[in-house]
Write a structure and sequence with these properties.
Layout: H1 2-30, H2 44-59, E1 62-63, E2 69-78, E3 83-87, E4 90-91, E5 98-100, E6 111-112, E7 115-119, H3 120-124, H4 126-137, E8 143-147, H5 153-158, H6 162-169, E9 175-180, E10 196-201, E11 211-215, E12 218-232, E13 242-248, H7 264-283, E14 289-295, H8 303-310, E15 319-326, E16 335-338, H9 344-357, E17 363-366, H10 374-379, E18 384-389, H11 411-425
Parallel strand pairs: 7-8, 8-9, 9-10, 13-14, 13-15, 15-18, 16-17
Antiparallel strand pairs: 1-12, 2-12, 3-4, 3-11, 5-10, 6-11, 12-14, 16-18
Helix pairs in contact: 1-7, 2-7, 9-11
C-alpha cells in the first residue's frame, strides 16, 4: 500500500509540473513581442486569437456553432509609428519617462513646443487662467504644461481631470503636457481628441527646457476584432444548463512601433487558465456542457463581452454559473470573488472548498463592480463571479507586466478550486 501512495504522489507531482509548464508556455507566447501586446496595432489581437483557436483544438474543445470566432467591430485610436520625445538634450523613454494619452491626435511630424506653465494657483485664479487661455487664442503658445504636483490633496481632488478636459477642448495642433508623480497606467480610447496630451514624470521634468516630440496616431472608425469561443460537451445528453468560463485575451497593444504592453498578468495568465480548464474537462467531462469564451476588446471598455451578451451563441438563461478570470499569475495572498455579496450560496461553496482542501490563503468577498467582462452577464441576469488573484505582482497596465515576473505560485490550487466548484454546483 505504501508503494501505491508513493507512486500516486509521484504521478500527481508530474501532472502538476506538466500543467505549470503548459500554462507558462501559453502565457509566454501570448506576451511575446510578435503578438504586439494583443492590441490593434499590427493586428496583434488576431494573431493571439488564431493562436487560441489552435490551443483550444489541442485541448480537445470544439467550436460553438461552425466557427471558434465571433467577429465584431469597434472604433479605436492607435499609435502604430513614431513615439519620441525630448526634453532639453535628453531623449525620453516611452512608458518610463512619458506616456501619451490614448485619445491623443498625433500627426507624425516633429513638433517643437512653446509652452506656458499652469499650476493649481493659476487654475484657481480666474483672471490668470483667462490670460493663459488668451495666449492660446492669440497663438502665442502652443502648449500648456500642467503641474499640480505641489497642490494640497484637498485641491487635487477638485482639479481632477483638468488636463483631460483641456485636451478634449483645445484645437488641433495644440499640446497638453501634464507633469505627474504617480505610476503610469495606460488604456485604450475609442475616440480621439483634437489635441495631443502627454504625461511626463516629475522626476525628469524641468520647466523652461526645450520640449519636442514626434507622435503618430491612427484613428480607425471600424476595426474588426473577435471573441474566441469553444465548448466541451457534457456527459448528460440534452443538458439544460451550461457552465461558462471566461477571460479576456486582449491587452493594450503598442504605444509606438518600439514599445508594447506584454499584459502577462492582465490577462495572458487568465487566458492560459481557460486552456488549462478546457484540457481538464476534455479529459474529465462534467455532466453539463462547459463553454469557454476568450473576449476581445475588454480593455477598450468591455466591448467583446457586451457584444456577446447582445448576440449570444447559446441562450443566456441556460447558464447555470459563469466564472470570469483575470490576473491569475500569482495568488500568494489569495483571491477575490466579485459578486460574492449577491450570490451568497455559491460564495459559501467556493469558500468551503477552499477551507476543506486547504488551497488558498483567502477567498475574499467583494460586491458587484463594472471592472471586467462578468458585468454584462450579471446585468442580463446570469449568475457570475469575477475572480482575480492578490499577490506579489503589482504591475498593471504598464510596460512592466512581463511574463518573467509571474510566479504562478497558486495556479494549481486555483484550478483545483474551480474544478471542484463545478462539481459541487452541478
Amino acid at each position: 500500500m505504501r508503494n501505491f501512495w508513493l507512486l500516486f504522489l509521484l504521478l500527481s507531482s508530474h501532472t502538476v509540473s506538466g500543467q505549470i509548464d503548459e500554462v507558462r508556455r501559453v502565457t509566454k507566447q501570448l506576451c511575446s513581442p510578435e503578438f504586439h501586446g494583443r492590441g490593434f496595432v499590427n493586428h496583434g489581437d488576431s494573431l493571439a486569437a488564431n493562436f487560441l483557436v489552435d490551443e483550444f483544438k489541442r485541448a480537445g474543445a470544439e467550436p460553438v456553432g461552425d466557427l471558434y470566432m465571433q467577429k465584431f467591430d469597434l472604433s479605436v485610436n492607435t499609435f502604430p509609428g513614431e513615439m519620441t520625445m525630448t526634453l532639453g538634450d535628453r531623449t525620453l523613454s516611452p512608458g518610463v519617462h512619458f506616456m501619451v494619452d490614448p485619445a491623443s491626435n498625433g500627426q507624425d511630424i516633429e513638433k517643437e513646443l512653446s509652452s506656458i506653465l499652469i499650476d493649481h494657483e493659476v487654475v484657481l485664479d480666474e483672471n490668470r487662467l483667462s490670460d493663459s487661455l488668451g495666449m492660446v487664442a492669440e497663438r502665442l503658445v502652443n502648449c500648456f504644461v500642467i503641474d499640480f504636483t505641489n497642490a494640497p490633496d484637498s485641491i487635487l481632488k477638485e482639479l481632477g481631470g483638468f488636463g483631460s478636459s483641456m485636451a478634449s477642448q483645445l484645437p488641433v495642433g495644440f499640446t497638453v503636457i501634464e507633469v505627474i508623480n504617480d505610476k503610469f497606467i495606460w488604456s485604450i480610447s475609442q475616440t480621439r481628441n483634437p489635441s495631443v496630451h502627454i504625461y511626463v514624470q516629475d522626476s525628469i521634468y524641468e520647466h523652461g527646457q526645450k520640449i519636442s516630440y514626434n507622435i503618430e496616431s491612427k484613428f480607425i472608425p471600424s476595426y474588426t476584432t473577435q471573441n474566441v469561443i469553444a465548448r466541451i460537451p457534457g456527459t448528460r445528453k440534452c443538458s439544460k444548463k451550461t457552465i461558462v468560463f471566461t477571460a479576456h485575451y486582449d491587452h493594450l497593444g503598442r504605444m509606438g512601433s518600439d514599445t508594447y504592453f506584454p499584459g502577462a498578468n492582465d490577462n495572458a495568465s487568465g487566458t492560459a487558465m481557460l486552456i488549462t480548464l478546457a484540457k481538464h474537462f476534455s479529459e474529465s467531462p462534467s455532466k453539463h456542457d462547459i463553454i469557454f469564451i476568450a473576449f476581445g476588446a475588454e480593455e477598450a471598455g468591455l466591448v467583446g463581452s457586451k457584444y456577446y451578451v447582445d448576440n449570444p451563441l447559446t441562450k443566456l438563461k441556460k447558464i447555470k454559473f459563469l466564472i470570469n478570470m483575470d490576473i491569475m499569475g500569482s495568488g500568494e495572498e489569495g483571491i477575490t470573488a466579485v459578486n460574492s455579496t449577491i450570490f451568497k450560496k455559491e460564495y459559501e461553496i467556493l469558500k468551503s472548498i477552499n477551507e476543506e482542501m486547504d488551497l488558498l490563503a483567502k477567498v475574499k468577498k467583494r460586491g458587484p463592480t463594472k471592472n471586467s467582462d462578468h458585468y454584462w452577464f450579471t446585468e442580463a441576469g446570469v449568475p457570475a463571479f469575477f475572480i482575480y488573484t492578490v499577490g506579489l505582482n503589482k504591475n498593471y497596465h504598464d510596460i512592466f507586466d512581463v511574463y518573467e515576473d509571474l510566479t504562478f505560485n497558486e495556479y494549481q490550487d486555483i484550478t483545483t478550486l474551480l474544478q471542484e466548484f463545478v462539481l459541487r454546483i452541478e
